[in-house]
């Protein structure tokens, strides 16, 4: 049996550059993705759907938000396959350009008043392209930063991808605040288009940042020694099927984000509560600002005590804090909503959100890591995306049954808890040995064997 080549060293400064590129690229990409969520909750029911039935229009608009999540598993199959064959860098550049183009086109779409039912059809098509792009974005960025990270700091470096996601959500919210403050006629006529048109600059900036990255040392070594698999999906399902299922279940924790970002915003600004649109956008902005600091702190803690306890805290804690946040909205008390929104989303949810890039990525070997992360997360995220639509139905005809929505969200946090409890702890396993079969020794310490 041949002796594996020694791991290749990353060029000086490349781990920081990879993490920075993951942060900035994800921020720019998810700016595009999240401005759609704000528009779906606040604008699209009036300009793309039948205004004579506001409840149904809102439901259909929120359903288009979920359409992207339905497209993501398809994108994961395609982009995961090529990411494990061609490398992480190529997929990172492709996904950013596709997201920028599809988002820019949304800003150019005619409304229902102009072209009738063709308008929502075109909207859904562009949303599908957004979903395909997002399917490969996080998996490729996570793989890039994890495989470049120095020993003992994979949690911290991979967390930059999710910090970037929160940064993109913050940027999207900040852009929408002045837009939402426009007079109603200007907002619906042209104001809503501005955040989508800005995606052109997003795509250009992201391309400049990512094209200078080096491919990861572990992927380069894999390609040079053993070669890349012809069918990464076949290898993944043969050797890592249990971990794929585990990631699917764990990824349902993203339901907390979609309920907080979209449904809660729609509920708070509905006639039954009547909170100010701009004020609620500020809740999301400040919660994301806090998350920018909390995510790397939780990830650093996971480098010391392990991925599982931090993820479990975030998943189980989010099930509890969502009740508190939605209850606060039902009271109409803005100070209460602000404080509990920051605690629920900015602090508690960030524990799970900050650690999952390393937690999931460490379950797979280099040759199938991008496929495993992409397929596992995107199936889970697809369910999480439609959680918004289900929440709108569960909330009843008046859309005010917040306790049912909170219970529904808490139920979706149960599979992530179970997945984490059954997962291996991998924070001390060397990068080149990740994904090997783990066996429990008689001493109680985890033993890794080939």
Automatic annotation (TrEMBL):
Domain of life: Bacteria
Keyword field contains ATP-binding: no
InterPro entries: MFS_dom, MFS_sugar_transport-like, MFS_trans_sf
Transmembrane feature ranges: 30-49, 55-79, 91-112, 156-181, 187-209, 247-268, 280-298, 310-328, 334-352, 373-396, 402-423
Location (main, coarse): membrane
Stretches assigned to the Major facilitator superfamily (MFS) profile domain: 18-428
Topological relation to the membrane, as annotated: Multi-pass membrane protein
Coiled coil, from the record: none
Entry-linked PROSITE patterns: MFS
Keywords: Cell membrane, Membrane, Transmembrane, Transmembrane helix, Transport
SUPFAM superfamilies: MFS general substrate transporter (SSF103473)
Protein name: MFS transporter
